[in-house]
Amino acid sequence: MHFEFSPRTQDLQQRLKTFMAEHVYPNESRYHQHCTGPDRWQPVPVIEELKPLAKQAGLWNLFLPQSDRGAGLTNLEYAPLCEIMGRSPLGPEVFNCSAPDTGNMEVFERYASPELKKQYLEPLLAGEIRSCFAMTEPRVASSDATNIESSIVREGDEYVINGLKWWTSGAGDPRCKVSIFMGKTDPTAAKHKQQSMIVVPMDAPGVKILRMLPVFGYEQAPHGHGEVLFENVRVPAGNLLLGEGRGFEIAQGRLGPGRIHHCMRLIGVAERALEDMCRRVKTRTAFGKTIAEQGTIRADIATSRIEIEQARLLTLKAAWLMDTVGNKAAKAEIAMIKVVAPNVALRVLDRAIQAHGAAGVSPDFELAAAWANSRTLRLADGPDEVHLESIARGELSRTLL
Fold first, then answer.
1. CA 258, CA 253: separation in Å to the nearest integer?
2. Where, residue-wise, is CATH 1.20.140.10 in the chain?
3. pLDDT tens track of the chain, all 401 residues?
4. Is the pTM of this model over 0.90?
């Protein structure tokens, strides 16, 4: 296994780093001011200003492997770019590479009709609209997706949709025009053939956002996470993706690349937290010497570097396997990184918070908000326990008595 990036990919990495340094980092304060201000549920002006610059720089839609609509990068080539973008809370959206839009665009590209692609994929690729993914439900343990109770029922040339979803990320943005909804088309079918996915316009009659759900007190506006009621929502039969009973098939196609993206962004978060910690401890003095000279802090810095390198290499391995042998063969590594990356990011962030003292838990630094966001990713796309069970099952199946 050898990770070697082409000159083009190396050039993209360098240009992305330069763009982040020149345009993204200097505008973070404007981003935070908007996202906590009275107009926080409206699009962020600074992001809209930077999008055209990212397009002009050729740093737009860098995802979408195996598609001429993307940048033509493999999962392995895209992974380090994801890390660079993940270093800033506004980074991914500036380049039109933010969740859940990336995953939804991949679903549209792979499984949607030409009509749906024209209606939704093209404006998503242009950064003109946003989207959400309605899967998790408050009344069941959605870590087991076979529990999902929402219904998708065929009536003539339409499907009628009913269900209550929550943690529908992105639903709070006024630009969110479409949802990909998962529900049951046939409760009597085999366990993994009951679910289907269907495209639902967010302005369809019967779609109602009941409330926005804060994360550890952070609203994460204007993106947000909605509790959304779908009540007798009617959509054309052609909005069903791939066919009845194929929801799990679509989910696996969507979640593999998405997990790589999440994990590499988290490594970017951890890298920046480590840098912040190092800067902080060099400039603060306690008990007659800088904090950087304290043994416990030095151990924290060293341990953080070790853990970040381990997490990055495992994530790159998973991306490489997805490219070379496919998502199914790489399922163990995908599960591993989904456990490792959030936990590493959280440990590094916790050490950085500790090194900053009381300032670390304040809004004056990004650390507390980054910790809150990273903690959710131990649940998103499947909780740690589900992935650990999958890894253990694979190990046991390979061990002979």
1. 9
2. 248-398
3. 667 788 999 999 999 999 999 999 999 999 999 999 999 999 999 999 999 999 999 999 999 877 788 888 999 999 999 999 999 999 999 999 999 999 999 999 999 999 999 999 999 999 999 999 999 999 999 999 999 999 999 999 999 999 999 999 999 999 999 999 999 999 999 999 999 999 999 999 999 999 999 999 999 999 999 999 999 999 999 999 999 999 999 987 777 778 899 999 999 999 999 999 999 999 999 999 999 999 999 999 999 999 999 999 999 999 999 999 998 899 999 999 999 999 999 999 999 999 999 999 999 999 999 999 999 999 998 899 999 999 999 999 988 77
4. yes
Give the integer Cα–Cα distance in Å for 162 and 150: 6
Instruction: List, in sequence order, the alpha helices (H) in 171-294.
Output: 247-283
What single letter denotes the amino acid at residue 283? Answer: T
Kindly compute the dihedral angle of the four CA atoms of residues 197, 203, 208, 212, in this order, to the nearest 10 degrees: 90
CATH 2.40.110.10 placement within the chain: 131-242
- The domain 7-125 having CATH identifier 1.10.540.10: the answer here is yes
Q: What CATH class does 131-242 carry?
A: mainly beta
